[in-house]
Amino acid sequence: MALVILRGAIAPVLVGMAWDGHTSWGWVLLYCLAVLSDIFDGIIARRLGVSTAALRKADSWADRGLYVCVAIAAWLAHPDVILAFKLPLLSILGLQGIWWIVNLAKYGQPASYHTYTAKAWGLTLLVAAIALFGYGYGGVTLWVAILIGVIHTLEELAMTWVLPTWHHDVLSLGHALEIRKQLLS
Question: At a CB cut-off of 8 Å and minimum separation 6, what does 114 contact?
């Protein structure tokens, strides 16, 4: 839980560091620390046997908060890149909005799947953020992050459609289909 709290605490600091429209390598290093906390919180929780639904929900909320703050920081420090990518970024935001509506309608809460595609999306977002905040670059790295984000969101929408009840830590659509099969047999 300490790593989840750390990530939640770092998120608004990233916005503060970009408030004047500039970021430094300090921003990148702090963001990397937040990403490392995200990677290791689940690993440590599973090893300690404390990976509960409540912890996984808190982890998901910390992730959402982090990426909202990264988006705000990107707008503050690199509005030119954000405007250049406005249609693909609005597309992924729209898909994420649909994801929220579908999950809230079906389960009454957001999903907390922690899929392989979520991990891939997180890694591509890491690369894209380092490129953007470290070098001012928003080309291929941002396109790849958006593409993986679309794939991830579509997979999780399919998982929500397949799973009759809320579950956490479902790694893929294949895993969701297996859970569905077990529940319905």
Answer: 42, 56, 59, 60, 168, 169, 170, 171
